[in-house]
Amino acid sequence: MSPRCRQSAESVSDSTVSPNLDFNWKALKVECKALPDIAGRQSEIALQIIDDLAGDVCMSDKYADGLKVVKEMLGDQNAESMKSLLGSSKFGAQRAELALDFVFGQLWGRPGLDRRGRSLVTIGILIALGATNELKFHVLAAIKNGCTVKEIEEALYHSIAYAGFPRATQATEAATEAYRAAGMID
Predict the structure, then answer these.
(1) How far apart are CA 98 and CA 47, in angstroms?
(2) 103 and 119: one domain?
(3) Tell me, what's the pLDDT at 125?
C-alpha cells in the first residue's frame, strides 16, 4: 500500500470514510488501459501510478462498512489485520477486500435477519463444512451479536442430526477452545 493510502486508511473514523477524490480517476484508468502495449506491459506502470494517486487501494465506503462490522463482531485486531491487507500484493491478500466488501459490507448488513440470526446460520454452515478455524471466530462473534453460550451449545447439538456426530464433535471442540481462551467457560 502506498504511504498516501496507508495514511488515509489509518485516519479513517469508525463511522465514515470519504476518500478525497477531486478527479475522475476511473475515467483516466479506462483511458490508460486503452493505451498501446509498452514494452510488452500494457500501461502497467501508468495504471499502478493511477491506483496510487486515486486511492483505489485506499479505504472506500464499501470497505469501511465491512470494516465497521468486523470491528464490532471480531474485534480491533482482526479488523486491523484485514485493513492492512487492502491494496497489498501479498499472496491471497485480495480475500480481505472480498470479505470486507461482500461478506461483511453487504451480506451482514442486509435486512431480513439480524446479526444474531446470521450468526446462528453461519455457525450451522461452518459446522456442516467442518470449518473449525472459522468457527472459533464466529462463536465469539455470535456472543457479541446477542447469542448466548447456551444457544450456541444447542446449535451444536442440533447439528448432529444434519451434519453428523464427527462434524458436531469437531465443532464442539473448536467452540470449547475459543470460549476457554476467552475465559467464558471452564
Answers:
(1) 21
(2) no
(3) 98
pLDDT band at 10 (very low <50, low <70, confident <90, very high): very low
Query: C-alpha grid cell for residue 25?
Result: 480517476
Distance set, CA 180 to CA 34, 90, 161, 173 (Å): 56, 33, 26, 10
Does the residue 52 lie in any domain?
yes
CATH of the domain at 131: 1.20.1290.10
186 in any annotated domain: no
Does 55 fall in a domain? yes
State the number of CA atoms in the 13 A half-sphere of 96 facing the CB: 21
Range of the domain at 142: 115-181
| Cut 0.70: pTM above it | no
Closest by CA to 145, choosing from 174, 170, 108, is 108
In 3D space, the residue among 163, 128, 161, 126 whose CA is nearest the CA of residue 141 turns out to be 126
Q: Please answer whether residues 73 and 118 qualify as being in contact, where contact means their C-beta atoms are separated by less than 8 angstroms.
A: no
> Cα separation of 137 and 135, whole Å?
5
For 161, half-sphere exposure in the C-beta direction (CA atoms, 13 angstrom radius) is 4
Grid cell 447469542 — which residue? 147
